[in-house]
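debug: dumping io for the single-chain case to check the tokenizer round-trip. Nothing else runs in this session.
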Amino acid sequence: MKNYKELIVWQKGIELAVEIYRIIDLFPSKEKYALTNQMQRAVISISSNIAEGWGRGTTKEYIYFLRVARGSLMELETQIIIAFKLKYVDQNNFNKVSDSIRSIAMMLNKLISKLKMKLD
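debug: decoded output
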């Protein structure tokens, strides 16, 4: 199996984290410990859980951590929608992040399905 750093889904997760950090730099200072913090935690969790699952060494554990990563991705999706509705994120950045989230979700789903077949 590839090293996790070679996985496109992990790389896309890292790119998304950088993009989210860039976007939240534009948020009002009152969000420093609220929505901003939650978004940072969620986006960091995506690639971190992909890496942790890979490092656990068993397919079953890997699938578990990929599901956790997918959950964090859905948290981030919810948070970016809230930020957009609060007008902290413009339409262009919202669309860009939403597209990345959809893409990563599809990759995670595909990887989970592939790994589940190994277990059967």
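debug: round-trip ok. Residues 4-119 form a domain with the de novo design (two linked rop proteins) fold (CATH 1.20.1440.60).
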